[in-house]
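Archive record
______________

***
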Amino acid sequence: MGILACLAAAFAPYRERYTAEAYRDTVLTADTVAERLREMCVWVAVAEETIAGTIGCRASGAEGHLRGMAVLPEWQGRGLAVALLQMAEGELRRSGCRRVTLDTTEPLERAARFYERHGYAASGRVADFFGMRLVEYGKGL
């Protein structure tokens, strides 16, 4: 499945910095991607007949949540991440959300900077993600 390949390629450079359980939950399996597709609105960016990027979102009342943002390494820096983020945020706005959150792990420093450039700020909430620190970011919509 293209989403699984995209997630695996995008997160491969960070594999050694993840616990095995956290990595498996991040890159998904055939079962967990099917679950995500049932529970969330999942967007993909297709380039050259390949899923080059993906993001999922879910609305829960006035708050939305983003999960699973990934762009193939060869497509990074070309605007796909911005387009995916805008699509997901637009979906959450249409669903009545006034705030959106996402979580990221500490190894994903580049992702954290990307989110900050797009209006997200660390909320101060940190959770355990299979033995890793999971930092919450949020912004108003």
Observations:
- The first helix runs from residue 2 to 11.
